[in-house]
Structure formats: structure tokens, C-alpha cells
Amino acid sequence: MRRLALILLWPAAAFAQTSGPAPLKPEDLCSVEGHVSSAATGEPVGKSSVRLARASSPAAQVSDTYAATADLTGRFVLRNVEPGTYQMRVIRNGFVTAQYGARGSRTLLTLARGQRLTLDFRLTPHGVITGRVLDPDGEPVVAAWVQIHRSRYSDGKRRLTTVGSMNTNDLGEYRFYGLEPGKYYVSATGGPSAGPIAEEGYVTTYYGGAAEAARAAPLDLAAGGQARGVDLALRRARFYRVAGRVVDATATGPRASFRVYVEDLTGEGVLRQAAPIGPAGAFEFRGVPPGRYSVSAVLVGRGRNLSAAAPVEVGASDIEGIVITISPGFSFNGRLRVEGDAPLEMRKAMIRLQTGPRSPEDYSLGTSGPWNIQSAQVAEGGGFKFEEANPGRYEVTVLGLPDGYYMKAVRADGVDITTSGLNLANAAPGLLDILVSPNAGQAAGVVQDPESQQPVAGATVALVPQEKDRRALFTFYQDALTDEHGRFRFQNVVPGEYRIFAWDEVEATAWLDPDFMKPLEGKGKPITIREGGQASVQATLIRGDQQ
Predict the structure, then answer these.
(1) What is the pLDDT of residue 57?
(2) Which residues share a beta bridge with 395?
């Protein structure tokens, strides 16, 4: 009987082994060849490492990675490559790593069966910034903490982002290498010290002698450029004490505890300290340099996510008597409805309340942390509940909707707040009502280079709403990269008026900044997206030198 079972199972097993994609023939395999040269001189860059990795595979699967080394003339060949979608990059010491795609972007390379592809890569030499950190008397500062920053977009707002850091050596020297071309800012402060917290010390100083990033002198580093002698003279200042207490108004009980932090309000990460909380919620920070800070308290334990914060200005004397009260937060119910009779698996949906990046104005609502996110799972019947949501003004979004659906309207106690947001400053709504529709729009098109009249692969495309009340909300924006044929597609679009912009080089989320977009308005292609409609457009590429 056992033998009979094995015999009966054999045909099914054989069928399973032979089903699936047809095996590849030698003529189905692909090749990628090309040339690597310097973007600065045009000379060949030999010994460059060329790597092709399958986009859908974990990095650990070496079998899906192809590699070659360019010869002394810069030539490389990758043979016997299976058809598929790949990420491609070129690496060489002394140069910025190059990625396949249009300038400044990263896109995937799709190889069809038997395709023979030829590519040219131009590597940008990396730059160097060197200098010393000195004390007010001109002596070198050992173990000073030096950082280099770049001004970059974060959710549509420009901020200084730290891209490198190190301690100075025994001569007060530092050296940053491997830098892309662009503008940099350099800052330094005293290094870590042992023992008691000092009452006086070095404060953060930017190149050019500025105490604030807004007044710092930028360094414009060219491709392969070397900025030497970028010296910083540190300033000394008195440090201060910041003290107060945390008031627990949540009736949490003994299982919960609190943490309290002080951090720089500029968002540049110059200072972030934690302090223990003593009897009656007392806390104390010592060694705080002059500046603008926030003091934040966070409840820890029992799965709760409550916090509160207060801004402080440090600079004239010690600050005492700060009181941070953590309240129970706001609890309220909601429901998710679907327009018409369209089916929707409610349990796969989640409602998210999200504030934007923190600004000083947020503290009037007691908001803590750079982001404040609250989430609630939707039940089978469409109901959901938020427990103890922190005070703040929130943008409401629905996650987990299937393709073709979009959030059509949000009402709090019958008032439309779709674009104004949910304001949890003083009270919670009786009911948060969210309507979704199965009739989302779509937009598709091709990006064309106006000079060559050819499609552009790897271009960044942004779908930008035109209605004034939608411009400040992330929900209404979308972005994408064009494929190797210059094509793009946006799905699940909220119906409305939009413009489509395309760049060969642009910083992520720059299109959320009204100041950045204002001079470019005429370069976007207008498009109207209707409920259930499919719109198409041919977008014109905006080059980096046209911005």
C-alpha cells in the first residue's frame, strides 16, 4: 500500500518540478558592457568595481549578483546575466559611487531576454575638507567634536543635516573625505569630558565664527575639490542649570515611570540630554549652554504613549520652576465607511493621526517629539477608537486601503476637517467619521528631454496639488521614478487639480516647499484627475541648472 501511494504521488511531483517559467536558453542571457570615466577630466577610471544586483533579492544571495572590474581603459563587461530587474552601481576609491539612472537619481535597470546593453558611467571625484579647531588663545583643542552638515529638505522644509562627524587629533586637526560636490557647513564644540559637569565650557561654533547655523559661512566644494585651512576658533561661555518637575495627571499608578529630556530646538542635534526624575517628579539638567531648547517628558509603561513639552530660552541665568504636566490625553470613537456598495476588508485598514515636523509653535499645544503619531486599528464593522491621544493638530490618513480606494472626506462631529485637520487642543470629538471611495483616479505618462526629444529614465516625477487648502498636506502628493522607457504612473489619486513636474536632479520632498516651487510653476504640466478617471500627460524634464 505504501508503494502504491508513492507511485500515485510521483506524477504530481514530476508535474510540480516541470511547471513554472521555461528554462533559459543561452541566447536568452543578457550582457551589460560599457565604459567608466572621470566626470572632471574625461579620463578612463580603471579598476572600477561594477556591480549588478537583482532588485527583488536579499543582498545575501550572491547568486543574484554580477560583478566585473573595469580594465585600465575603463572598459567593463558583465556576461551571462539572467533577464530581470536590477540595481546597478559603480564604485572606485577616490570617487563618489555612481548609480544607474539619470543624474542625481536612482532607478532600476530592466533586462529583457537576450538584451545586449551598453552604458557609460562618469564618476565624480570626491572632495576633502580639512582644518583645525583652536581655543580662544589659538591653542589646538584635542578631542573637539567636529561635524559637517548639508542643507537638505526634510518633509518640505530645509534643515541642516549632519553628514559626518569626528574628534580632532592631538594637534586639533580634522579631515573629512569622500564628499560629494555641494555646499557644506562645519561646526565644532568641546569634546567629551570626564568628571563633574563644568559650569563653563566651549559652545558650538560654526565656520566663520557664527554661533547659529543660520549665520554660518558655507563652503562650496567642487567635484574633487579640497578645502584646506577650514579652521574654527571655539568660544567659551557659561553653562546653566535647568530644573523643574513633572506632574503626573494620568493616575497611572506605580507600574509606569517617566523620562525627561532637554534638546536643542533648532533640530540640529547639538544637545540632547536625559535626566533622572527624583521624588515628587523633580528633575535637573546641568551644563546646558546658551540657546533655545525644549524640555520633554514621556510616560513609559503599560503601553501608553503620552508626553508633554515646554520651550525654554537659556542664556542669562539658571532656570528653575519648569512644570510639565502630562495629562491623560483624549479618547474618542470613530467609524470608517465606504461610499456605495463596494466591499472593503475593514480589519486591514488603520487610521493614523500625524503631526508635521516639530516647530516652536507646536509647544503651545504641548506636542512633544519631532513627530507625533497616533494609530488605531479598524474593527470588522468599521469602528475604531483612539485611547489617550496627545494634544496637537493632526492630519488624518487611512492606511491599508486596496488599490482603487482613496479617503474622500473626514468629519469631526459633523464638521468637515478633511483639509483643516483634527485639532486636539482642548477637547476630543464625539465621533470621527471617515468616508472612503472606491473611485480613485490614476495618472500616467512619459518624461521627455526637451533638447533630445527622448524619454528620460530615472527622472523624479512629482504630482503636486493645486488647490490651496491641499498644498500643505502630505496626503495629496505623490512621487515616482521613471522606468528605463521614461514612463511613470500614479495610482489611488484623490480627484482634483494637479501639476506634474519632472527633474533629472532634485532633493527629495523639495516639491513640498512653496518657495522652491514658486519659480517653477510654469514648468509643470496641468492635469485634472476625476473620480475613477485615468489621465495621461507628457511631462517635460526640468534640468538641475534650470531650477
Answers:
(1) 46
(2) 354
Spatial distance between the Cα atoms of 406 and 493, rounded to a whole number of angstroms? 7
Q: What cell was used for 502?
A: 519632472
> Over the stretch 61-103, which tens digit does the pLDDT of each residue have?
445 789 999 999 999 999 999 998 898 999 999 998 888 875 5
How many C-beta atoms lie closer than 10 Å to residue 252's C-beta? 18
Segment 48-69, tens digit of pLDDT? 999 999 876 444 344 578 999 9
* Residue 225, helix vs strand vs coil: coil
Map out the domains of the chain with their CATH numbers. Answer: 27-125 (2.60.40.1120), 127-237 (2.60.40.1120), 241-326 (2.60.40.10), 330-437 (2.60.40), 441-546 (2.60.40.10)
Give pLDDT, residue 191: 61
Question: Residue 322 pairs with which residues in a beta bridge?
Answer: 244
Which residues make Cβ contacts (< 8 Å) with residue 139, sequence separation at least 6? 172
Cα–Cα separations (whole angstroms), residue 54 to 65, 165, 183, 212, 530: 6, 33, 34, 45, 37
Closest by Cα among 230, 225, 122 to 180? 225
Give burial (CB, 10 Å; 0-12/13-18/19+) of 491.
middle
Q: Read off the pLDDT band of 359 (50, 70, 90).
A: very low
> What is the structure's pLDDT at 303?
61
Give the chain's end-to-end CA distance (angstroms, integer): 78
Per the listing, cell 563633574 goes with 196
CB atoms within 10 A of CB 482: 26
Give pLDDT tens digits for 393-444. 899 999 999 999 999 999 999 999 999 999 988 889 999 999 999 999 999 9
pTM, full prediction:
0.75
Q: What 8-state DSSP symbol labels residue 82?
A: P
d(CA 221, CA 185): 10
In angstroms, rounded to a whole number, what is the distance separating the alpha carbons of residues 439 and 406?
7
The residue among 499, 460, 506 whose CA lies nearest residue 483 is 460
Distance CA 220, CA 181 (A): 8
What is the pLDDT at residue 161? Answer: 86
Summarize pLDDT for 232-245 with one digit per residue, the tens.
999 888 999 999 99
Q: Across the chain, what does the average pLDDT equal?
A: 85
Q: What are phi and psi of 476, to 5 degrees?
A: -90, -5
Q: How far apart are CA 402 and CA 340, in angstroms?
A: 16
Give the dihedral of Cα atoms 390, 396, 401, 405; nearest 10 deg: 170
> Among the residues of 173-314, which ranges form H helices?
none
Tell me the C-alpha distance between 376 and 215, whole Å.
43
The H-or-E segment that residue 215 falls in is none
All cell numbers assigned to 202? 566651549
